[in-house]
Every structure is written in structure tokens, then in C-alpha cells.
Amino acid sequence: MRWTGKIRFLFLAPAVIWVLAFTVFPLGYSLYLAFYKIEQKVEVKREKQPMLDAAGQPVLDDAGQPRTKNVVIKEQVNTATFIGLDNFKRMLTDTQVHEAVRVTLTFVLIAVPLELVLGFLLAVLFNQHIFGRPILRAFMILPIFATPLAVGYTFFTIFYEVGGPLAWTGIPFLSNPTWALMSVIIVDVWQWTPFCFLVFLAALQGVPDELYEAARVDGANAWDMLKEVMLPLLIPTIVIVLLLRMAEALKLFDIPFALTGGGPGVATQPFSMLAFRTGLRFFDLGYASAMSYAFLAVIMIVITLFFRRLRANYG
Amino acid sequence: MMHPLKWPLFALPALALLSLPASAGQNVEWKDDGTVLIKLGEAYNNAVIQTTREELGTEFGPDKQPFKDVTISVTVNGAGPKGGISGPLYQFRPIWEELSGGKLNIVELPFAEHYTKMMLDLRNGTGQYDAFMVGAFWYGDIAPAGYAFPIDELNKSGKYPKWTYDDMPDSLRALHQWKGVGYGVLNDGDGQVLYYRSDVLADKTHQEAFKKEYGYDLPNPPQTWQQLLDVSKYFNGKNWDATDADPDSGTVLHLKVGEQGHYHFQTLSSSFVLNPGDKVTRTKNVYWFDPEDMKPLINSPGHVKALEFLQELHKTGPQAQVGWSLGEAWDYFLRGKAVFAFSWGDLGALCQDESRSKVKGKCSATAIPSSTEYYDFEKKDFVKLDQPRLVGNTVGGSWHGVISNFSANPEAAYSLLSLMAIKPASKLMATVGWDGVDPGFKYQFLKEDGGTAEVEDYVKAGWDANDAKSYVHAYQQVFTAPVMMPYLRIPGSFEYWDILDKNLSATMSGSKTAQQALDETAQSWEAVTDRIGRDKQKADYQAAIGYTP
Q1: What are the structural domains of chain A?
Q2: Per the omega criterion (within 30 degrees of 0), is the bond before B21 cis?
Q3: Pairing mode, if any, of strands B193-197 and B338-343?
Q4: At CB < 8 Å, which residues of chain A contact B?
Q5: B69 touches A at CB < 8 Å
Q6: What is the architecture of the domain spanning B38-185+400-435?
Q7: Residue to substitute from B60, B505, B512, B520, interface A, most A β-carbons within 10 A
Q8: What angle do CA A151, B252, B112 make, to 5 degrees?
Q9: Exposure string over B267-284, b if 16+ CB within 10 A, otherwise e
Q10: What residues of B are in contact with residue A284 (Cβ under 8 Å)?
Q11: Is there a contact between B116 and A281 if contact means CB atoms under 8 Å apart?
Q12: CB-based contact A291:A97 (threshold 8 Å)
């Protein structure tokens, strides 16, 4: 039995080490960073040492002098000063943070419902017997597999305002702050509606035909069936899709990064892009960590509330 | 006995051997008379650089490979083997590898990630990269922290290919040094000049129509920003270029956020803001901060007026330019769609590339215009000028090599960077459009401007003679102007510029007024200064601009 326990531990060890090293440690360290001001400094010393050949003899240059090599001696000197909640307080007065929150919320509140509604309507359509359904369905889900960054660059050429394929519309897709955010939403809707559609379609196909027949016998029309049969049965799926899409949409990064660079101004700079720039462009790691934790807390609260509601309604 | 028919088989190689120079490698040919021929690849049309053993230093020689088995890694903005700044590294790689015996690993990084990767390597002391092709605005983060390797000793040793800071105008030299110590190896000279369509401005019909509308002669080229705005307004919306049926523009700008739009503002605003003086004082020759207390000057009335002017000027170009990077704006000018563009040296060289440009021979350049008034920091009022006053600039990156202080092979890295910096190589590279290496050094300027180059050097490289003349003259003027736009090189420069850039972009897209944008910039700059440390910033700023309290 003792052996079994050890073997079990051995099998678990890689996963445990992986989680500790790549999840728990970074989480803990970033939390530490959020409360400290870190100043990193590296002190460098150089020493010349003789170069030796394979036989351990000094290598000589043309003048017969021993060749030397550089040895770099580094010493990392970090100073950490405890600053308490300063980084969190800073967020309250930082206009960039306020703007990024506004952009993120606007995006989530418009893009996610649109994706759900369109996905649901498409799923209802594809739940009928329509011509070429398997091929159309395959085409419909292709956008999911595209890399968001590549999608962003592709739409950059589509939305190009001088000579682009949509230039005739005269719409300032990327140069007007409102339109730029709308463009980001359009691209996200294009990419993620198929995901909603796919999940809803699977759920719809799981609804027993008997229920529709029973409803029909009771005199229900198409609208009644949608309202009274499909929607109630799909609510758990809709909530799950809503959760997944919201969690994903709150982390918006790639599409505005490639499409607009967060601009014009900060009109399309979501919260995650701001945190990224703060940490990895300007190396204000403590503040970036604080931002990320605040963001994580918000997402967790939203998701917990949703789950609570879900559990209350569906046990 | 050898059959007579087989003689040529042996005789021809023997003859070839006799006619060979002292030593001939695939890329480098060492002649007995001390000259050395360096053969560049197809990208440079198989050009051959003629240099001397003396110029190449004592470490390189026909039978020497001083860095055998050494591998060095150099980072550069990703643009590919025939792209700006990265291209020359690819072209010189086989040459350096033949001379040194080492291996060169070119690490291309997207512009948006280059600084981050470099700083992560330096802050952690990893030493993964031996050298970086940096923009001069990164110096504030690398030089005072001791991350860069000082190169003066190597430069003076005579062991490596020879080049000198003396070939640089003072304005560019300052960007390669920190507190008088050399860190950067000569490569590229960046500054903005005004490009204009010489054929359009010389058109008699337009000249008459302009005079009728504005009441003065069409300035060819404009000397002041106010003139430029009038001319831009006049041409904007007219189909003055017959290559298509669409209306054309006045001035084209590149204003995409996170890119290089803020340089337009720097160039334009410099003459609205800079107070001339013999030396840097609290009010003279300052642009960014008050050197005594690090209070931002960026929301001064001069800056605000300049930004309002830029908003006006922006209306004479396509609305889409708010989302344009360099490439799109340059392309617009090269397609003959705008009369004016003020940008870097690359554009002048690209005008000559007929595969991309419709404006070869019509693409003149002139020193950047100036404002007719500037804000006097002492009088706290605007001062009107009788004559245009040129304010030079070195805005941009002046991209060049800096060696990491954590490199185990600084000599090898230096030998590569200095090989690309020798006069004949630098001269050749400045004449080519695609390589991103722009002129700025004395030997690239024409003789009449105190340099040693001749128009024929440019004509041989495919330039139109008139375009070349105006181009090199414009650069000479911009780099040697008596009043220069000071360069921001302090820790956090990237962040200060990013804040400015976002606010400028918001102004250009109409979501903020000029005053509001610059006030918010100043407020955010104060927070950055406080965070990094006001006293530390003040000391570095004073050192960077040459201010003595």
C-alpha cells in the first residue's frame, strides 16, 4: 500500500509541479508585486580570462600573445518597498483606467448579446431542413479557428478607408473613435457568433421532437414554440455560453491590438491592453499586477453571481 | 605524359590562380595594394564597396578570423532581409562571418515588442543578446542604468573597422553618447524634412489661381507653416494629379496611435515653442520640461497653438490618416496623391524607387518650415518673427547598434557594427531607399554644404539629380540648424511619449481639444515623474539636454 501511495504521488508530481510553477507561483508573485515597489538593478563586472584550447593550452594571437575572453559577472540587486494599497488607490484616479473600463464594458455589453442573439437565430435556422445544411454549417464555424491577431490584420485591410473594399461606404471605420470601437465589435461578432451558433444548434438538436409535436397539437405557432419550448429548454445553455463569452470578451486584446492599436487615442484600448502596456512596455509591474488583480476580482464576482443565479434556478 | 588536349584543363585554373589577388574569399577580396573589395549581395545590386586594410582595422585580415566559433545575437525591428534597418544586417552577415569566423544570429522582433524584449533581457541581466539596433529614445532607459557597453576604447584601439563621431553633426553625435561617453555605433540619421511636389508647385496655372485666392505668390517651397497650410488648403480636394480621376490632398500625415504620429507634432511644434539662446537655460532651448523642477512644458501656449495648427493641417489630408502608419502615408505620397509630406529620409529615397513611386524627379525636399511666431517663456507671450527661423530636428530613432553590457562578446559585436559604419559602406547605404539607413553624416552631404559627397554618388544609385540635391541639402540644414529641437532621453521616455501620443491621437480624431489633450498629458507626465523619482529624472534630464544649473 505504501508503494502504491508513492507511485500515485509520482504520477501526480509532474502536474503538481507544473501548476505550482506556472500558475500558483506567478499568481502569488504578482500579488506580492501589487503591494511592493520593486527596483531592479544589475551590477556588472568584467574579467578577462585566457582562452584555452581543447588541450588546455592558451590560445595565442598572431603576435604570439595569449588571447583572452570576457567573463561577465552579474549581481542582481533588487530593492522592494512595501507600498500597501497605493497601486489600487492609484487606479481610482487614473483616467486611462477609467477609459479602459468604459471601453471594455461597452464592448462586452454590445458584442456579447449580439453574438448570442445572432448565434441563436442562426441555430434556429439551421435546425430546420435547409438546402446544403452540412456544407453551410461547416463554413459557418470556420471563423472560430482563425487566430484573432490574423483576423484583426485581415479586417484592417477590409476596413481600409482609402481604396479598401468598403471604402465606397465612406464610413470612417478606423479613424473615428466611435466607429473604431464599432469595428472592433463587428470583427469580434464575426469571429464568435459561430461559436454561439454551434453550441445552440447542438442544444436545439437535443430537444426531443415529441415536445414540438405536443406543442403543435396544442395549437402552438412558430413563435409560441420558440418562446415556450426552445427558449426555456435552452436557458442553461444560453447562460453557459453567456458566461464563456463574457469571460472571454472581458479579456479582449488581440483584435484591437492588430486592428486599431487601441486608438484613435484610447477609444479602443481595453483593460487587458492597458495592463499589458503598463507592465511590459513601461515596466510598472506593481501597478500592472494591481490592475490585473482588480480585473480578476471583477470577473470572479460577475461569474459567481451568474453561477449562483444558475444554481438557484436549475438546482 | 599529359595528353595535349588535357592541358587547358590544368592551364586555365593555373592562369586564373596567377591572376587572382592576394586573397579572395566569397565576399571579401584583399588586394596586394592594400585595397579591399567588399561584395554586397543582390539587394544592393551586387555593389562592391572599396575600402582599405587600414580602414578595416588590425583584427581583420586575409588569414585572420579573430572571432572563430563565436556566435553573436543582434536584435532589430523585424522588417526582413530587405527591410529597413534589418536588411543591412542580413547583407553584411556573410561578409562579417567571412572576416571574423564568427556566426551572426539576427533576431527580428516586431517594433511593438523590441523594446520590451530588450529591457527584459537587460533588467534581468540575461545577456541573451549581444547588441541591439536601438532607437535613440531608448537611451534614457539603458545608458544611466549601466546596461550599455561603452565603446570609446574599442573605437580608439585601431583594431576594428574605423569610423568616427567627428563625422556626425553635433545634433546626431549627442544621440549616440551619454554624458560624453560613446555607446552607439554610427548607422542611421533620423530627422524630418518637408517633401513637396516640385512640378505641382511650379505649375503656372496653380500659381496664378493661388495668388488670386490668397493674395500672395505661391511659395515654392513654403518657408513657414502658415504658408504651408495655405498651399495645402488650396490644393486639397482638387484633382491636380492627372494619374487618376479622384481628388487629391494637400498634406499627408501618419497619425496612427502607438506608432510615429507624435513625431509630426514634435517637428511642427518645435518652432512654436523653442526660445533661441546661446545655451540651454530654464527658458531657452527647452521643450519638454522645466529643467529646474521637471514641471512639464508640454501644455504651454506654444505647444497648444502648434497642436491646433496640426489639427487644421490634418484637415487638408485624407480623414483615414488618423489610422495610418508610416507605410500608408508614404504610399499615398508616392502614388502622387499629396503635395506635401514631412517625414524621414526614407521617403526621399523611396521616391526614387519607380516600382513604388510615381513621383521620381518631382519629389523635392526642403528644410522643415517654421512658425511665424513662438511662445516666449520669459515674457509669457507670443513673439512675432519677421523672417522664418529654422528649427532643426533629429526626431525619430536614428536606429543604430548599442552593445549589451552583459554580452560576453562585445568586441565581436562591435566589429560587426563598426564594419557597417565605415565610410564607404555608410555612404552607399544612405543612397538606397529600402534599407532604412538615412543620411546625416558629413561625408553624405554635398561638397557645397561642407561634405564630401557628390550628386553623382546619388545619381549612380538611381537618383534623380535634382531630387538628390534638394534632399541632401535639406538634411544638412536640418541637422546643423543653430536652434535644435531637444531630444527626450530620460528614463521613461517611451512612457512619456506614449501618453503624449494617445492624447494627440484623441485630438486628431476629434475627441479632445488641443488644450484638454495637452493638459491631460502634463498631468499624466507629472505622475510618471513622481513615480520614477523627480530628483533622479531631473538629474538625467539636465544631463540629456546639457543644462547646467
Answers
A1: 31-84 (no CATH), 87-314 (1.10.3720.10)
A2: no
A3: antiparallel
A4: 40-44, 61-62, 69-72, 74, 76, 95-96, 160-162, 172, 174-177, 180, 260-267, 269, 277, 280-284
A5: no
A6: 3-Layer(aba) Sandwich (3.40)
A7: B505
A8: 40
A9: bbbbbbbbbeeeebbebb
A10: 495, 531
A11: yes
A12: yes
For chain A, what is the radius of gyration of the CA atoms?
A: 28
pTM equals 0.87
Q: List the single residue in A72, A162, A264 with the smallest CB-CB distance to B509.
A: A264
Each residue of A102-120: pLDDT tens digit?
A: 999 999 999 999 999 999 9
Where in chain B are all domains bearing CATH 3.40.190.10? Answer: 38-185+400-435, 193-395+482-545
Cβ–Cβ contact B131 with A under 8 A: no
Instruction: Give CA A27 to chain center in angstroms.
Output: 17
- DSSP-assigned states of every residue in B461-476: TT--HHHHHHHHHHHH
Enter the ipTM: 0.82
Q: Give yes or no for B512 touching A (CB within 8 A).
A: yes
Contacts with B315 from chain A: Cβ below 8 Å: none
Q: What stretches in chain B show pLDDT beneath 70? A: 1-24
Please name the CATH architecture into which domain B193-395+482-545 falls: 3-Layer(aba) Sandwich (3.40)
Q: Answer whether B494 touches A (CB < 8 Å).
A: yes
Whole-number Å distance between alpha carbons of B118 and B141: 11
Quote the CA–CA distance of B354 and B376 in Å, as a whole number: 46
What are φ and ψ of residue B385, in 5° steps?
-115, 140
Quick check: B116 contacting A, CB < 8 Å? Answer: yes
Mean pLDDT, 10 residues at a time, chain A of 315 residues: 75 92 92 90 84 82 77 85 94 93 96 96 91 89 93 95 91 95 97 96 91 90 89 89 92 94 94 94 92 91 83 72
How many Å apart are CA B267 and CA B288, to the nearest integer? 13
- Burial class from Cβ neighbours inside 10 Å (0-12, 13-18, 19+) for residue B381 reads exposed
The owner of cell 496653380 is: B206
B512 is written with which cell numbers? 479632445
CA distance A67 to chain B (A): 10
Tell me the CB-side half-sphere exposure of residue B542, using CA atoms within 13 A: 15
Cβ of A263 within 8 Å of Cβ of B256? The answer is yes
Amino acid at A106: T
